[in-house]
Amino acid sequence: MEHALDITLTVNGTRISRRVQARQHLVDFLREELGLTGSHAGCEHGVCGACTLRVDGEIVRGCLMLAVQANGCRVDTIEGLSDSGELARLQKAFHEKNALQCGFCTPGMLLAAQDLILKGEKSTREEIRQHISGNYCRCTGYEAIVDAIEEVIQTKVTHGQG
Ligand code: FES
Ligand code: FES
């Protein structure tokens, strides 16, 4: 019989307790148990970045982390970060620069981009490319994505906006 464990974690600011299967991955727990389907399961072995989440302030691959490993952690997903407005400028820039087409990569891409923006440095295009190199996009060719992230970084550096 599958081994189950009780976990308590904070997801998008809400404390949640559940019994989970020991081998269930965090992205599957969020999607299947909590209905938070914004984090996508793509390759499911740590390559594509579609499942990118924030756990205790650090971006992680939700397909490489077990739900039980998030016990006691704070987990932020695209839903929570969108609702809080934290990603609003990035989302606007992605929209204006046509930095998404099918949108499958977009939640993970936004979290990876925000992770770079929070560092507060004036990153070059090459550094932006490097930072999102673990997030695959099959549609855009990346140029528009780099344009959008660069615009937000420049605005932040120029105006000191958070
Ligand atoms: S689904 Fe996790 S990295 Fe691809
Ligand atoms: S917009 Fe389709 S995978 Fe990136």
What do these coordinates show?
The protein has 162 residues and is of the alpha+beta class. It has six helices and five strands, in the order E-E-H-E-E-E-H-H-H-H-H. The chain has helices spanning 26-33, 78-83, 88-96, 106-117, 125-131, 143-159, and strands at residues 4-11, 14-21, 52-55, 58-61, 74-76. A five-stranded mixed sheet has the order 2-1-5-3-4. A hairpin with a 2-residue loop joins strand 1 and strand 2. The radius of gyration is 16 Å and the shape is elongated. Bound molecules: FE2/S2 (inorganic) cluster (FES) (2 copies). One FE2/S2 (inorganic) cluster (FES) binds at residues 100-106, 137-140.
pLDDT average, as an integer? 95
Spans of at least 5 consecutive residues with low confidence: none
The overall strand count is 5
- Report the order of strands and helices: EEHEEEHHHHH
Q: Hey, roughly how much beta strand do the residues contain?
A: 15-25%
**Largest β sheet strand count, sense and barrel closure:** 5 strands, mixed
Strand order of the largest sheet: 2-1-5-3-4
What topology does this entry show?
Blueprint (H helix, E strand, L loop, with lengths): L3 E8 L2 E8 L4 H8 L18 E4 L2 E4 L12 E3 L1 H6 L4 H9 L9 H12 L7 H7 L11 H17 L3
Parallel strand pairs: 1-5
Antiparallel strand pairs: 1-2, 3-4, 3-5
The protein binds FE2/S2 (inorganic) cluster (2 copies).
